[in-house]
Amino acid sequence: MLRSAINEEGRFPCTGVEKPGRDQLVSIVLAVFNAGDAVRKTIESICSQTYSQRELLIVDGGSSDQTLDIIREKEEGIAYWVSEPDRGTYDAFNKGIAHAKGDWLYFIGAGDFFVDKMVLERLFTVPPKGMLIYGDVVWGNTGKFYDGRFSKLKLCRRNICQQAIFYHRDLFRKWGGFDIRYGLLADYAFNMKCFGDPHTAPEYRKMAVACFGLDGVSARMSDEAFETEKADLIRGSLGKTYLILTRLHQAQRAVVKRVETFFKSSR
User: Fold this and answer.
1) Domain ranges of the chain
2) What is the pTM of this model?
3) Rounded mean pLDDT of the chain?
4) DSSP-derived secondary structure for 175-241
5) What architecture (CATH level 2) is domain 26-239?
6) pLDDT in tens, 133-151
7) Residue 37: CB partners within 8 Å, gap ≥ 6?
Protein backbone atom coordinates (compact mmCIF):
# COMPACT_ATOMS: atom_id res chain seq x y z
CA MET A 1 0.00 0.00 0.00
CA LEU A 2 1.30 3.44 -0.88
CA ARG A 3 2.06 5.83 1.91
CA SER A 4 -0.10 8.95 1.81
CA ALA A 5 0.93 12.56 1.50
CA ILE A 6 -0.97 15.63 2.67
CA ASN A 7 -3.07 17.01 -0.17
CA GLU A 8 -4.18 20.59 -0.74
CA GLU A 9 -7.15 20.17 1.64
CA GLY A 10 -4.94 18.98 4.47
CA ARG A 11 -6.33 15.47 4.18
CA PHE A 12 -4.49 12.16 4.17
CA PRO A 13 -6.07 9.90 1.53
CA CYS A 14 -4.42 6.51 1.93
CA THR A 15 -4.73 3.89 -0.75
CA GLY A 16 -7.78 1.83 0.20
CA VAL A 17 -9.38 -1.49 -0.54
CA GLU A 18 -10.96 -1.72 -3.96
CA LYS A 19 -14.64 -2.59 -3.89
CA PRO A 20 -15.06 -6.28 -4.76
CA GLY A 21 -17.51 -7.53 -7.33
CA ARG A 22 -19.16 -10.19 -5.16
CA ASP A 23 -18.33 -9.96 -1.47
CA GLN A 24 -19.74 -7.24 0.75
CA LEU A 25 -17.25 -4.46 1.42
CA VAL A 26 -17.50 -3.22 5.01
CA SER A 27 -16.46 0.36 5.78
CA ILE A 28 -15.44 0.89 9.40
CA VAL A 29 -15.53 4.51 10.54
CA LEU A 30 -13.49 5.39 13.62
CA ALA A 31 -14.14 8.77 15.24
CA VAL A 32 -11.37 9.97 17.53
CA PHE A 33 -10.19 13.04 19.42
CA ASN A 34 -7.23 13.14 21.82
CA ALA A 35 -7.63 9.44 22.55
CA GLY A 36 -3.95 8.78 23.11
CA ASP A 37 -2.88 5.17 23.16
CA ALA A 38 -6.51 3.95 23.32
CA VAL A 39 -6.77 4.38 19.56
CA ARG A 40 -3.95 1.88 18.98
CA LYS A 41 -5.91 -1.12 20.30
CA THR A 42 -8.95 -0.14 18.26
CA ILE A 43 -6.98 0.15 15.01
CA GLU A 44 -5.17 -3.12 15.64
CA SER A 45 -8.47 -4.87 16.36
CA ILE A 46 -9.88 -3.68 13.04
CA CYS A 47 -6.77 -4.45 11.00
CA SER A 48 -6.53 -7.97 12.43
CA GLN A 49 -9.94 -9.00 11.08
CA THR A 50 -9.69 -12.08 8.85
CA TYR A 51 -12.44 -10.77 6.57
CA SER A 52 -10.46 -9.06 3.82
CA GLN A 53 -13.23 -7.01 2.22
CA ARG A 54 -13.05 -4.10 4.64
CA GLU A 55 -11.69 -0.61 4.83
CA LEU A 56 -10.86 1.60 7.79
CA LEU A 57 -11.59 5.31 7.75
CA ILE A 58 -10.47 7.52 10.64
CA VAL A 59 -11.93 10.97 11.29
CA ASP A 60 -9.95 12.85 13.93
CA GLY A 61 -11.28 16.05 15.44
CA GLY A 62 -7.92 17.82 15.47
CA SER A 63 -6.08 15.96 18.21
CA SER A 64 -3.14 17.64 19.94
CA ASP A 65 -1.80 14.58 21.78
CA GLN A 66 -0.05 11.47 20.44
CA THR A 67 -3.17 10.27 18.59
CA LEU A 68 -1.95 11.47 15.19
CA ASP A 69 1.46 9.85 15.70
CA ILE A 70 -0.25 6.51 16.29
CA ILE A 71 -2.48 6.97 13.22
CA ARG A 72 0.58 7.71 11.08
CA GLU A 73 2.32 4.67 12.53
CA LYS A 74 -0.65 2.48 11.53
CA GLU A 75 -1.28 4.27 8.23
CA GLU A 76 -0.65 1.21 6.06
CA GLY A 77 -3.90 -0.37 7.23
CA ILE A 78 -5.99 2.79 6.81
CA ALA A 79 -7.95 3.55 3.65
CA TYR A 80 -8.54 7.21 4.51
CA TRP A 81 -7.96 9.57 7.39
CA VAL A 82 -8.36 13.24 8.14
CA SER A 83 -7.61 15.48 11.10
CA GLU A 84 -9.60 18.68 11.36
CA PRO A 85 -12.03 20.34 13.80
CA ASP A 86 -15.54 18.89 13.82
CA ARG A 87 -18.82 19.32 15.68
CA GLY A 88 -18.67 16.09 17.62
CA THR A 89 -18.70 12.34 17.15
CA TYR A 90 -21.67 12.19 14.79
CA ASP A 91 -20.32 14.96 12.61
CA ALA A 92 -17.15 12.86 12.35
CA PHE A 93 -19.19 9.77 11.48
CA ASN A 94 -21.03 11.72 8.76
CA LYS A 95 -17.69 12.74 7.27
CA GLY A 96 -16.68 9.11 7.26
CA ILE A 97 -19.89 8.11 5.48
CA ALA A 98 -19.14 10.62 2.73
CA HIS A 99 -15.78 8.97 2.02
CA ALA A 100 -16.74 5.34 2.58
CA LYS A 101 -16.91 2.95 -0.38
CA GLY A 102 -18.52 0.04 1.42
CA ASP A 103 -21.83 -1.70 1.00
CA TRP A 104 -22.05 -1.78 4.80
CA LEU A 105 -20.99 0.78 7.40
CA TYR A 106 -19.89 0.27 10.99
CA PHE A 107 -19.06 2.96 13.55
CA ILE A 108 -16.70 2.73 16.49
CA GLY A 109 -14.87 4.95 18.97
CA ALA A 110 -11.33 4.82 20.28
CA GLY A 111 -10.93 2.30 23.08
CA ASP A 112 -13.65 -0.04 21.80
CA PHE A 113 -12.65 -3.16 19.86
CA PHE A 114 -13.95 -6.32 18.19
CA VAL A 115 -14.20 -9.34 20.49
CA ASP A 116 -11.92 -11.36 18.19
CA LYS A 117 -10.45 -11.39 14.68
CA MET A 118 -13.30 -13.48 13.19
CA VAL A 119 -16.20 -11.10 13.85
CA LEU A 120 -16.61 -9.72 10.33
CA GLU A 121 -16.12 -13.13 8.77
CA ARG A 122 -18.85 -14.66 10.96
CA LEU A 123 -21.24 -11.83 10.12
CA PHE A 124 -20.73 -11.55 6.38
CA THR A 125 -19.87 -15.06 5.25
CA VAL A 126 -23.64 -15.58 5.45
CA PRO A 127 -25.06 -12.57 3.56
CA PRO A 128 -27.43 -10.41 5.64
CA LYS A 129 -31.09 -10.73 4.71
CA GLY A 130 -32.07 -7.14 5.44
CA MET A 131 -30.48 -3.70 5.53
CA LEU A 132 -29.45 -3.69 9.18
CA ILE A 133 -27.63 -6.44 11.04
CA TYR A 134 -26.75 -6.40 14.73
CA GLY A 135 -25.51 -8.56 17.58
CA ASP A 136 -24.46 -7.95 21.18
CA VAL A 137 -21.64 -6.11 22.90
CA VAL A 138 -19.65 -7.05 25.97
CA TRP A 139 -20.54 -4.38 28.51
CA GLY A 140 -17.28 -2.92 29.81
CA ASN A 141 -15.45 -5.13 32.31
CA THR A 142 -18.67 -6.69 33.62
CA GLY A 143 -18.52 -9.67 31.27
CA LYS A 144 -22.24 -9.18 30.59
CA PHE A 145 -23.73 -9.10 27.10
CA TYR A 146 -25.96 -6.23 25.96
CA ASP A 147 -28.70 -6.68 24.89
CA GLY A 148 -30.19 -9.39 22.69
CA ARG A 149 -32.91 -9.10 20.08
CA PHE A 150 -34.78 -5.79 19.80
CA SER A 151 -38.41 -5.20 18.89
CA LYS A 152 -39.88 -1.78 18.18
CA LEU A 153 -41.23 -1.63 21.72
CA LYS A 154 -37.89 -2.59 23.26
CA LEU A 155 -36.19 0.08 21.15
CA CYS A 156 -38.55 2.66 22.68
CA ARG A 157 -37.13 1.78 26.09
CA ARG A 158 -33.42 1.55 25.29
CA ASN A 159 -31.04 1.73 22.36
CA ILE A 160 -29.00 -0.90 20.58
CA CYS A 161 -25.34 -0.27 21.32
CA GLN A 162 -23.80 1.37 18.29
CA GLN A 163 -20.80 -0.96 18.39
CA ALA A 164 -23.19 -3.86 17.72
CA ILE A 165 -24.76 -2.56 14.49
CA PHE A 166 -23.89 -2.69 10.79
CA TYR A 167 -25.94 -0.50 8.44
CA HIS A 168 -26.41 -0.96 4.72
CA ARG A 169 -25.35 2.12 2.80
CA ASP A 170 -28.86 2.51 1.35
CA LEU A 171 -30.18 3.47 4.78
CA PHE A 172 -28.03 6.60 4.72
CA ARG A 173 -29.06 7.31 1.15
CA LYS A 174 -32.66 7.21 2.32
CA TRP A 175 -32.46 8.93 5.72
CA GLY A 176 -29.35 11.05 5.37
CA GLY A 177 -26.60 11.04 7.98
CA PHE A 178 -26.79 11.21 11.75
CA ASP A 179 -28.61 14.25 13.18
CA ILE A 180 -25.85 16.12 14.99
CA ARG A 181 -28.39 18.01 17.11
CA TYR A 182 -28.28 14.91 19.30
CA GLY A 183 -24.72 15.01 20.57
CA LEU A 184 -24.76 11.59 22.29
CA LEU A 185 -27.75 9.69 20.91
CA ALA A 186 -28.01 10.53 17.22
CA ASP A 187 -27.64 6.81 16.48
CA TYR A 188 -30.72 6.13 18.67
CA ALA A 189 -32.79 8.54 16.58
CA PHE A 190 -31.46 6.93 13.40
CA ASN A 191 -32.23 3.43 14.68
CA MET A 192 -35.85 4.45 15.28
CA LYS A 193 -36.14 5.50 11.65
CA CYS A 194 -34.63 2.21 10.52
CA PHE A 195 -36.89 0.05 12.69
CA GLY A 196 -39.93 2.06 11.64
CA ASP A 197 -39.30 1.31 7.95
CA PRO A 198 -40.52 -2.19 6.98
CA HIS A 199 -37.94 -2.36 4.17
CA THR A 200 -35.07 -2.30 6.69
CA ALA A 201 -35.85 -5.80 8.01
CA PRO A 202 -33.39 -5.70 10.96
CA GLU A 203 -31.61 -9.01 11.50
CA TYR A 204 -30.26 -10.10 14.88
CA ARG A 205 -27.29 -12.46 15.07
CA LYS A 206 -26.78 -14.09 18.47
CA MET A 207 -23.09 -13.28 18.85
CA ALA A 208 -20.83 -10.76 20.55
CA VAL A 209 -19.53 -8.13 18.15
CA ALA A 210 -17.43 -5.73 20.22
CA CYS A 211 -16.31 -4.73 23.69
CA PHE A 212 -17.88 -1.40 24.66
CA GLY A 213 -15.96 0.69 27.18
CA LEU A 214 -17.94 2.32 29.98
CA ASP A 215 -15.52 5.21 30.44
CA GLY A 216 -16.64 7.14 27.36
CA VAL A 217 -18.71 10.33 27.42
CA SER A 218 -21.86 8.59 26.16
CA ALA A 219 -21.72 6.16 29.08
CA ARG A 220 -21.54 8.96 31.66
CA MET A 221 -23.87 11.66 30.36
CA SER A 222 -27.40 12.10 29.02
CA ASP A 223 -28.47 13.75 25.77
CA GLU A 224 -30.90 16.47 26.81
CA ALA A 225 -31.91 17.36 23.25
CA PHE A 226 -32.75 13.74 22.51
CA GLU A 227 -34.67 13.22 25.76
CA THR A 228 -36.69 16.37 25.08
CA GLU A 229 -37.70 15.15 21.63
CA LYS A 230 -37.82 11.40 22.31
CA ALA A 231 -41.63 11.21 22.40
CA ASP A 232 -41.88 12.97 19.03
CA LEU A 233 -39.18 10.69 17.60
CA ILE A 234 -41.07 7.58 18.74
CA ARG A 235 -44.36 8.89 17.35
CA GLY A 236 -42.81 10.00 14.05
CA SER A 237 -40.70 6.91 13.39
CA LEU A 238 -42.49 4.03 15.11
CA GLY A 239 -46.06 5.30 15.46
CA LYS A 240 -48.47 6.64 18.06
CA THR A 241 -49.27 3.16 19.42
CA TYR A 242 -45.66 2.65 20.51
CA LEU A 243 -45.62 6.04 22.22
CA ILE A 244 -48.74 5.09 24.21
CA LEU A 245 -47.24 1.71 25.17
CA THR A 246 -44.02 3.41 26.23
CA ARG A 247 -45.87 5.88 28.45
CA LEU A 248 -47.87 3.05 30.03
CA HIS A 249 -44.62 1.21 30.76
CA GLN A 250 -43.12 4.33 32.32
CA ALA A 251 -46.22 4.81 34.48
CA GLN A 252 -46.07 1.19 35.66
CA ARG A 253 -42.42 1.52 36.59
CA ALA A 254 -43.17 4.72 38.53
CA VAL A 255 -45.91 2.94 40.52
CA VAL A 256 -43.63 -0.03 41.29
CA LYS A 257 -40.89 2.32 42.44
CA ARG A 258 -43.26 4.19 44.76
CA VAL A 259 -44.50 0.91 46.26
CA GLU A 260 -40.93 -0.32 46.81
CA THR A 261 -39.99 2.99 48.45
CA PHE A 262 -43.04 2.80 50.74
CA PHE A 263 -42.23 -0.70 51.97
CA LYS A 264 -38.57 0.12 52.51
CA SER A 265 -39.45 3.19 54.60
CA SER A 266 -42.02 1.25 56.67
CA ARG A 267 -39.59 -1.41 57.83
Assistant:
1) 26-239
2) 0.88
3) 89
4) H-S--TTSTTTHHHHHHHHHHHSTTT--EEEEEEEEEE-TTSHHHH---HHHHHHHHHHHHHHT-HH
5) Alpha-Beta Complex (3.90)
6) 999 999 988 889 999 999 9
7) 66, 70
